[in-house]
Amino acid sequence: MKAKGFNSILMQKNILILGACGQIGTELTLALRQEYSNDQVIASDIREGGENLMDSGPFEILDATDYDALEEIVAYYEIDEVYLMAAMLSATAEKFPMRAWNLNMNSLFNVLNLAKDKKISSIFWPSSIAVFGPNTPKMNTPQHTIMEPSTVYGISKQSGERWCNYYHHKYGVDVRSIRYPGLISWKTMPGGGTTDYAVEIYHKALSDGEYTCFLKEDTNLPMMFMDDAIRATMAIMKTDITNIKERSSYNLAAMSFTPDQIARSIKQSIPDFTITYNPDFRQRIADSWPNSIDDTEAKADWGWKAEFDLEKTTNEMLRNLKH
Ligand code: AKB
Is 298 domain-assigned? Predict the structure, then answer.
């Protein structure tokens, strides 16, 4: 086993990211490497990622559903904290329900059990607005309300939240979670989500000057720019344990918009940009989700505050993707 050396003397924590090559995982790894040190943040995924991720610190090929392999990496690097970012998202999960359930649930049980057995001390696990369903109040959806998700992904996220809550109360596991809205970023493409249109549209606006949207023009969904999502993730993990009152997952909000509104905001910079609509199976998923989220508890408990609205997001996306 690797000697911990100065790290343990200085009581610094070692961090493992599972699913580090995905849309959130990539940016989270880079941000954590800036916050801590490159050597303290171990990136892992079932495939290799971009150069920025691979070259800036340790990387391991690791399947989050393989408990033995995971346990070995945790022991080797003397991991304290795990961020479980590996998951199958809403649109892909509808096509492969059992694969989605197995990946989303087995990976979660693996990290929960590592913490239960005191092999790691804390976990971040992302939930989603997908925990809500057609019977949930759509506007300003509260923290505690009717959920009844109607998608495979949403069912796995709601179950995951119940298990996190259970492991915390039964075994004292320090697992913290956020219900992410749709995330908009320029460094890594999302994959297999219903909110992915809000990233694709910027790429297509710049490359083709037009975009065919797979959701209807008036589909209003909660969204967030990636910088806000990363800040929230790091804030919830850094806050004192006594501030965490929700052990299922926290509602989190920044903005809500429709495809028509995002297209209009792009037109401010690219006046010739055109959008057409060709809704597919993802429309039903989107229709089952809230229009906007009430994140009073995250604000009150650990000081959450969003910084990016639609205009700021559009400016950042177009500026960075232009290069
Ligand atoms: C998806 O669209 O599946 C995700 C999510 C809202 O969790 N972006």
Answer: yes
Bridge-based pairing of strands 15-18 and 81-84 is parallel
Ligand 1 pocket test target in 178, 180, 185 with most atoms within 8 Å of CB: 180
Residues β-bridged to residue 93: none
Minimum-distance ligand 1 atom for the alpha carbon of 91: 3
Residue of the nearest CA to atom 6 in ligand 1? 182
Number of domains in the chain: 2
- Judge whether 265 lies within some domain: yes
Question: Which of 152, 155, 194 maximizes ligand 1 atoms within 8 Å of its Cβ, making it the mutation to test the pocket?
Answer: 194
Distance 89 CA to ligand 1 centre (A): 6
Q: Is residue 1 part of a domain?
A: no
**Greatest Cα-to-Cα distance within the chain, rounded to the nearest angstrom:** 60
Q: From the alpha carbon of 153, which atom of ligand 1 is closest?
A: 3
Instruction: Name which residue sits closest to atom 7 of ligand 1, judged by CA.
Output: 128
Residues 56 and 127 in one domain: yes
Instruction: Indicate whether 107 and 219 sit together in one domain.
Output: no
> Residue 305: which pLDDT band, with cuts at 50, 70 and 90?
very high
Of 128, 135, 134, the C-alpha closest to 159 is 128
Task: Indicate if 209 and 112 belong to the same structural domain.
Answer: no
Summarised one tens digit per residue, pLDDT across range 199-214 is 999 999 999 999 999 9
Atom number in ligand 1 closest to CA 289 = 6
Q: Which pLDDT score, from 0 to 100, does residue 12 have? A: 84
Task: Give domain status of residue 86, yes or no.
Answer: yes
Catalytic residues: 153
User: What is this model's ipTM?
Assistant: 0.98
At 11 the pLDDT is 52
**How confident is the model over 99-114, as a mean pLDDT?**
98
Q: Which residues line ligand 1 (CB under 6 A)?
A: 89-90, 128-130, 153, 180, 182, 193-195
- Say which CATH number the domain at 306 has: 3.90.25.10
Same domain, 130 and 35: yes
pLDDT average, residue stretch 86-90: 98
The range of the structural domain enclosing residue 141 comes to: 6-182+224-251
Q: Is 203 left (phi over 0), alpha (psi -120 to 50) or beta?
A: alpha
Binned at pLDDT 50, 70 and 90, residue 287 comes out as very high
pTM: 0.95
